[in-house]
Amino acid sequence: MWRRDHRVAGPGGGTPLKPVGTVHFAVARANRSVIHRHERFLGDTREAVQLAAIVTALEMLREAVG
User: What's the total number of domains in the chain?
Assistant: First the structure.
């Protein structure tokens, strides 16, 4: 199961602790191991950050089931 809890895609709304472009990812495998990644995507637009997050999420899922 995939769940996205929070992200700060921008262009505004970031804080020093959660800058714009901050995204956390987690994938739980059937063996109960968890893969976590913290990324800060740089992009000119909210859509650029969202696209980068989508690509990363799909890559993580592929790795988890592969």
Answer: 1
